[in-house]
Amino acid sequence: MKNKSLTTLFCVLFHTMLVGQNSNVTLTIVDETTQNVLPNAHVTLGIKHTYTNAKGIAFFYNLPVKKYSLKVSYVGYETYNSFISLPATTNVTIFLKQNNTDLNEVVITSNDKKTFSKHSLHSKKVNQTFLEKNRDNSLMQTLKDIPGVSSITIGSGQSKPTIRGLGFNRVAVIENGIKHEAQQWGADHGLEIDQYNVEQIEITKGASSLLYGSDAIAGVVNLKNNILPEVNSFSGDVNITNRSNNDLYGLSFGVKQRYKHWFYKARLTHEDYGDYKVPTRKIIYDNYIFDLHKNYLRNTAGYNHNLSFSLGYTSDNLTSITTFSNVNSKNGFFANAHGLEVRTSKIDYDKNNRDINLPYHRVNHFKITNNTSLTFPDHTLDIEVGFQKNYREEHSEPVPHGYMPKPDSTMERLFKKNTYSLNIKNQLRSFKHHKITTGINLEYQHNTISGWGFLIPAYKRFTAGAFLYDLYEINSNLHIDGGIRYDYGSIHTQPYYEWFLTPVTDTNGTTSLQQLQRSDTKDLTFNSFSASVGISYAQNPMSYKINIGKSFRIPLANELASDGVNYHMYRYEEGNLSLQPESSYQIDGEVKATFKNATLQLTPFINYFDNYIYLSPTSAYYETLQKYQYNQSKVFRYGGEITVDYAPTKALSFSGSLEYVRAKQLNGTKKGFTLPFSPPLTGILSVEYHLKPWLIFKNTKLFSNIRLTSSQYEIVPPERPTKGYSLINVGLHTSLPIFSKKHPLKVQGRIQNLLNSKVFDHTSFYRLIEVPEPGRNFSITIIQTF
Hints:
Helix content: under 10%
Number of strands: 45
Strand content: over 45%
């Protein structure tokens, strides 16, 4: 197959050299709605590419006479793809349509089949405007107002994504094509990603293992910061943030510059914050009452120091970007969340609300990625390479447990994880109505451990997958897409012996002191097929999508081989070596109606797991700690989202969404129950009003939203029901041309939890110990671009 592909490539190149007649092409790129020309639009014609000038015109000279693929891309617009034949079409005008799938300010425009996504899986794009407007303590908290997306929050600066109630390693987080790999299995481990260093986000809801492999069983959060700057440009931004609730001070500074071929980007981010406040003075945990000093959730302070640098080169048929990033953080854990030993601690947690005492964690995540794209006449080859080094320390007060003496250090656990990734993807353009993509994904992980507390063993993991995907255009309104994938994975766990002696009595009644073995050498292999097929159809004013797919997820080391006390959760956790890969069968749909001033969208889903993995409490105890064990069961889930956008005038717009998920275990010890952290019925109502310019205040708008959440009585013991609540947020945004009219100063103020309501988020980590959501918070953000 490889030799045949090379032969075809050489034949095409040889044919190109033989063609003697040349032609010139002039392309004019304009906005379809406003008819304004679009300067600096990226235009690719065959293997050549250029940018439009100030008049929106791109020129190509001395092109051989033949058929060419044409691609035009511009930030905020749908990418245009077509074919032209020379010399018949030498002067062409291309009309680009604004991208209405970007989560931006609510702008309603007429529907057109050119704006319709041809892929059958539902996805949402999030741009810089949305990120700036909704910036919160962490990236996933920033995205929590997107229907179907929520976060498991841990303190004020950490969170991890959930999509339709599924989280942890069931949601793949992709950064520049490389899957983010750290210690995602931990309930109190957040994402090590600088949210200021994200230029665009695409969220896919639904089974996505076909293209991304294991861990994309619930969906994908695709982060991009490798967008090409404009030719001969230099720009940057300064972002200053302050939040009152946890006294956060943040500064992020970024620059980017491009010459003709070479370009670079750099960003530095620093955040420092104190303990955050909750609207209560008392916390009840395990029938013990803890008083909170001045409403502070003690020991939740922290800091983040982030640095990134990208260097790239682009030419007619080659684009390569290498990105270095380092995310460093130190965060305290709410002291009372780590068991009851804090009652005897000598630490004065209330002395200072900005100090970081025990327990805390220190994390450093270093990442190198390279994205290289090679353009040939009939196909494009993308190569993505990545290396990640995750270093995580977890410190706790040394306390003796059972036969374990008091440790001589605070280092409870240490994880060092190296991950090597390689993705190769080839997109064929040889067929007129087919867009065929083939690819392979390789990943190798090596995770070592240390510290006096054991939970999971050191392990090595290797995964390899190959896929074939085709997008077939029946006509301009109707498309079918589908594909198949095969994956192989192996996990090698290493032995571990306790560092202290425990008396053991054998069958003869003889007692001896031994170092108990907590993990053994195990070599486990897994393999699975996944596939999907879907159809998308658009006919004004309606569009329809449906996708049927099978996804999978390989069990993690903690699910297979954990055997220890998790003092962060105050329980004993046991893995299960007999676990099989999760298999998920899902149907996703989308119905969208677009009118002059409004859009309505419905995205339902049905999901069946034949072997869902979950941590279940048992009746056994280790000392005084209840044992939890990983099991599997059949699970049926269904739900979806409804979104409505309405703009009666240019100044006033409304939006609303409703999301619902229902899950039920069909067998096992928890038959009839739902799944942990199942989100309740949630609705969000938003309004935005643009004010007329006044004095030096430009682009001023008022916005507000209210989050309405119903009570959640569908729980898994020992979870407790959560009462419904409503939260009101208000804000104001304005621009002031103080330093530059072209780059005005952006100022935004927000008040979150306006009424300082005491509420419990069912998807919050701290909800398990009766800790409410943060109280009222006033934030101000100042952004100056240049």
